[in-house]
User: Which sequence fits this backbone?
């Protein structure tokens, strides 16, 4: 404590630099890809399937393809018009399942309404399901067989960020996951349970969310409600992972301007927490990094080579 500071002043929360952690992971993926190829394997192959013309999906898919190429992967993209039938999408998935140069298949969601999402996900070979959405992979995670599963990228990245701050042993920590989506909330809860946390999953029907949050050593917010988690919900010293990406009006920046905020009121929460992810630059970059890690892991398994851990 330096002179002039009150003894009650709390150090500001550490900002968890997801961009830097993601760069470390992709560096390792690139190095391990070189090792796999040197051992006689082939470059990891990632196929991304995009149906329709959703602008956000086009941006995400483009970023995934670029990163894959940057890491020395074999990268293919199937861009299909909105009018594509379910049968045509299933035929492409089937063709990719059979293609030995492809180790990871990602069908970008949401799919157009005339296509049954579950049917498409279940058509993907679980060994190539680098999104971790197939019921086989969801089930393996749920029964504690993470080492044989492929795990959903965003929650896997969130867990790595939590472990960066708190270390590898999370046993006994109280963790609150806000949101119960199949992509983030549910697999996040499973991963934290696997790490022996005491896990609460809250959602839109939960009673007294602030009280649940105040007990939590770890909060993962993934609800899609701008700045919902307030500073006075946060237990002093908690670690906060903000998965939210909400675009809100920012008239202070000029007419019609917007800005990106998370599900957590950042400044308020950072004053109480010990560590917090920013938006953007926190969880976002981790999702693509973990997709690349999953594709490499799938390629190592296909080649019968040892797989790296992340
Ligand atoms: N749409 C939004 N997030 C995701 C994701 O993680 N995977 C896929 N396939 N689609 C998405």
Assistant:
């Amino acid at each position: 404590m330096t002179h002039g500071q009150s003894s009650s002043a709390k150090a500001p929360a550490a900002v968890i630099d997801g961009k830097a952690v993601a760069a470390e992971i992709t560096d390792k993926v690139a190095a391990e890809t070189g090792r796999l190829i040197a051992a006689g394997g082939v470059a990891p192959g990632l196929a991304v399937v995009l149906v329709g013309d959703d602008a956000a999906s086009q941006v995400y898919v483009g970023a995934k393809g670029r990163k894959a190429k940057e890491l020395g992967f074999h990268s293919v993209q199937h861009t299909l018009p909105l009018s594509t039938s379910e049968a045509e999408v299933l035929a492409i998935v089937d063709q990719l399942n059979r293609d030995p140069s492809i180790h990871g298949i990602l069908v970008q969601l949401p799919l157009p309404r005339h296509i049954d999402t579950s049917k498409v996900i279940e058509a993907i070979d679980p060994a190539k399901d680098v999104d971790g959405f197939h019921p086989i992979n969801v089930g393996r995670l749920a029964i504690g067989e993470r080492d044989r599963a492929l795990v959903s990228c965003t929650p896997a990245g969130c867990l790595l960020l939590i472990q960066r701050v708190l270390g590898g042993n999370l046993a006994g920590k109280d963790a609150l996951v806000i949101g119960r989506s199949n992509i983030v909330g549910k697999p996040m809860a499973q991963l934290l349970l696997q790490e022996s946390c005491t896990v609460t999953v809250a959602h839109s029907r939960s009673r007294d969310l602030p009280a649940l949050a105040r007990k939590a050593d770890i909060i993962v917010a993934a609800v899609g409600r701008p700045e919902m988690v307030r500073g006075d919900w946060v237990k002093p010293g908690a670690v906060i992972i903000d998965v939210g990406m909400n675009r809100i009006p920012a008239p202070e920046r000029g007419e019609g301007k917007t800005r990106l905020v998370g599900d957590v009121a950042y400044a308020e929460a950072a004053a109480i927490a010990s560590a917090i992810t920013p938006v953007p630059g926190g969880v976002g970059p981790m999702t693509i990094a973990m997709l690349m890690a999953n594709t490499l892991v799938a390629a190592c398994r296909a080649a019968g080579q040892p797989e790296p851990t992340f």
